[in-house]
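User: Can you help me understand a structure? I only have the sequence.
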Amino acid sequence: MLLESAAIMNWAIPFAGALITPIIGFIAGKLKEGSQAQNVLRTIRNWMAAFTSFVAFVFTMLLVVDVFNGQGGEAFVTNWFWNIGDKPFAAGFGVLVDPLTVLIAAFASGIGCLIMIYGVNYMKDDKHLDRYWFLMQMFIGGMIFLVMSNNFLQSFVGWEIVGFCSYALIGYFFTKKGPQDPKEFTLKEETEGDYNAHAGFKAFITTRIGDVMLLTGILIVFAVAGTFRYTELLSDFSWITALHNKKILVLTAILIFGGPIGKSAQFPLQFWLPEAMAGPTTVSALIHAAAMVKAGVFMVVRTYPMWYLGLHDLHIENLQIYFIFVAAIGGFTALMAATMGTSATELKKVLAFSTVSQLGYMFMGLGVGGLIEPVGGVMGYNGYFAGSFHMLSHAIFKALLFLAAGAVIHAVHTKYIDEMGGLRKDMPKVFWPMLIGGLSLAGLPPLGGFFSKESIFGACWHLGEEGNIVGWIFLVVGAVAAAMTFFYTIRFLSHTFGGEKTEHVKHAEKEQGGHLHKSSALLWVPLVILAVGTIVIGWLAPVVELFMSKNDWFAAATNFTVADYHIHYGESLLHAFGSWTSLITLGVLLAGGIPAYFLFIRKQWDTKEILKKNKFVNGIYTFFYKRWYMNHAIYWCLRKFKVLAEWLYENFDLKVIDKSNYLIAAGTMKSGEVFRKTHTGILSVNFLYMLLGAIILIAVLLFIPF
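Assistant: Let's start by predicting it. Here is the structure, written out as tokens:
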């Protein structure tokens, strides 16, 4: 490899930067407030975060070159062995360089660097930047550490680092007041930082459910296989057969999938991600684009060949249940979150629901791909690539959308789309990149989102052509969700930039001297870079596919012959633009775009009047706006549980347990008082007690049979 230590440096440097940050901040805090030395140190602290991310990106790109040259594999492997009974077990440390690891590490560090640069200006007035920059660098380092690990246990450590950082960053403004009414958690927020402590805690608890499932599945695999290492698990599949014989193989696979359900906010653990918008916009961008939610997709892709091989090579038909389960969770979540996005009123929450929906697409593609029969030695590579490529495409355009949303919120001091409007002329450097990102989200050709969604639709179509009705079902689900995606994309873009300026925008202009402040270059330059990436990435799909095909780890499980794969650029474009699924995409865009055009751009129909006059439409809108009442149901259950807990405390804990403790203590004291009277200290009395005890013992021995 060009630099073997790059697989260590690309996550160690952000970690080191995180540790240095509070030291610099501490030294700066000891200097005279406002002095030149203090300002210099704080400037170094702020830019160091962007620098460490950039260096991590450089090291990762060296690994990309290595993978393209056919190099890679494990490095810095250290194992510890021990026996439990007659069975050997092994755990250790190491890194794994393959297309999947360097792909995710590249966009985690590269997009993370752009977010850091953006944050230098966006967070400049915050008073707690030591904590902010520490957590942001730990977040990026933890994500890269997670994906570069060569074993389950090490990945789980990175998994928990990412989870902790997301919890702390979502609750970054922890001093903000929570809901005034503890019975109602859906009050309208006033600022970006409302309910942060509550939102962070909600994210922490919700994702812990999935984490427990993941750890349980990992330990089951370890107990049977005796190792955590991915390469060893793929070199000897006797553990898959053993789990199947114990009738817990599918259960184990689903338990491991439970972690991604929580981390990637899939049904039924999707509740935390919309609330995560309470954190700073840079945090939202990092969570949605470069880290956290992508960790769940990574874990499914990482374990994909294990279960695929078990189904198609070992012929364990029960594993179809796992892939159907993954696709069903993804498909349902994609559709459900899309409906929520059509009614959300906060700009960042619309984007949050779109993230949940797009993650559902990724899981649907992977689940469908796992059911595709082996063809020409490829063995399901279509679905594997579809989910992985959409993960990459989504990372770029979603970072673009969140950073653009942050620039808008920063300018107009509101996050509600109905309080925005008419910003196109005032913010062209934000409007055009956000338009590109929004259209890519909707899957409009020829942007990156079109190519990546098309690959998922293609996997569904391929499965349907094999005679599996599941493929057609998920194709319909994905198409309906895509139509809704285009609908709410036009909605939030037109509300934000189209039409006339609202009174709120005019008031914001007045407060800023008669016009909106121009966005700093630190805010709009990252947007331009991401916009270019969104345009280009789709056309590079064949190159990315070739890159993914060099995955020796995947090849070992699927008999995929890397040497037989070559870039067929023309065929790839023909499939993207000339296939049946491309016609479906066109129809979907028309189905979602035409009504959105007349509602939000031409405004031929008054949406408020429609909701006011049509109770049925209003009911559907309310159902979507209330998130299918799932959030309400959870809080209702929690409140009822709280009432039950209080009743049990008052009537069982206090009246039964505590009272029993007091009675036992009082009885012990009373018996002690009585028994104490027998200790007279008189020798003759003590002798009499001894004689009486001897007589009783003899009587027992004589008259009681044994």
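Now, to help you interpret it: The chain is about 75% helix and 5% strand. Residues 192 and 280 are 7 Å apart (CA to CA). Let me know which part you'd like to focus on.
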